[in-house]
Write a structure and sequence with these properties.
Low-confidence stretches: none
Shape: globular
Oligomer: single chain
Strand content: under 5%
Structural class: mainly alpha
Number of strands: 0
Helix content: over 70%
Order of helices and strands: HHHHHHHHHHHHH
Radius of gyration: 26 Å
Number of helices: 13
């Protein structure tokens, strides 16, 4: 190639910079609280399948449909016979097995997908601290589970309030029965969400996370059965501590009494160890939350 042609090629520009209108953001900086709130709302929507495919909505709304249908049936029966078939706390207790499977599906959707897709460095950028991510996801799951159990209870309350023959006094008495039921639903939600989300955060594969959640809750149940048949009465009364499900039931029996277990019905015998169950529930939730925060400190590093 002639030297003049080579020099011409070297002097010819090989690229052009185009101004496509990028500008610096000049709007308000909403800060940490807004980021936390947005992450919480997104997590709550994810719990119920909003913003996901139609296939992802099937199981959450199937569970919601079943729980609501049971509540509607109990309300209809009460309107016919004139007395409640079950208290609000008993309703929450009987639906707890559905809560387990709901957690097994919702918890992996909240955290396992983010682990697998590798988007956590984006979440952990300022102004969102590492712990806020875990707490927002936990709060979203707790809220979703509480709505799952509490929403049908409100439906039962409305049915009872409109059919009561005692006027405002009857509505007030129903409200006094509803509030402990909602608190008991909150206890189920906090315990199941904290344990379930911790297990799901250990793997990025949703199938493994779901299986791990179900396994932890179900495999602890036989331990309760073994301890319940020991000759020691104290061991029988403390047996419920071995499983999250029976732990919650034990706290409910101790705190709610006849609102949960009526005369002649079987329940977990907690005896004089009711405060022990309450303390164990607090320690379980606190420990699971602390481990969840430690898990995300490790992931972020």
């Amino acid at each position: 190639m002639p030297e003049s042609s080579s020099a011409a090629l070297r002097s010819t520009p090989t690229g052009v910079i185009h101004d496509i209108g990028y500008q610096r953001y000049a709007g308000p900086r909403l800060g940490r609280g807004h980021v936390f709130g947005a992450l919480y709302v997104h997590g709550l929507r994810t719990t119920f399948g909003f913003g996901r495919s139609a296939k992802a909505k099937i199981f959450p709304w199937l569970v919601i449909g079943i729980v609501t249908l049971v509540a509607a049936a109990l309300t209809a029966i009460r309107s016919q016979i004139g007395e409640p078939v079950a208290t609000y706390a008993q309703f929450a207790d009987s639906m707890s097995w559905l809560v387990l499977f709901f957690v097994a599906v919702a918890a992996p959707e909240l955290v396992s997908r983010d682990l697998r897709s590798g988007v956590l460095p984006l979440y952990f950028s300022r102004p969102l601290p590492r712990g806020d991510y875990a707490l927002a996801k936990l709060l979203a799951l707790v809220t979703g589970l509480w709505l799952l159990l509490g929403g049908p209870q409100v439906l039962m309350f409305l049915g009872a309030a409109f059919t009561t023959k005692q006027g405002l006094r009857g509505v007030w008495n129903e409200l006094l029965d509803l509030l402990p039921g909602l608190l008991y639903a909150g206890l189920w939600a906090v315990v199941f969400a904290s344990v379930g989300l911790l297990i799901a955060s250990l793997t990025g594969k949703r199938a493994f996370a779901a299986g791990g959640v179900v396994a932890v809750f179900l495999m602890t149940t036989p331990i309760v059965g073994v301890l319940s048949i020991l000759p020691s009465r104290s061991a029988n009364e403390l047996a419920g501590l071995a499983s999250p499900s029976t732990l919650v039931q034990g706290v409910g029996i101790w705190s709610l009494g006849d609102l949960l277990v009526e005369n002649g019905q079987e329940g977990i015998g907690v005896g004089r160890f009711g405060p022990v169950y309450a303390l164990a529930a607090v320690l379980l939730v606190a420990g699971a939350t602390a481990l969840l925060l430690a898990r995300y400190r490790k992931v972020a590093s």
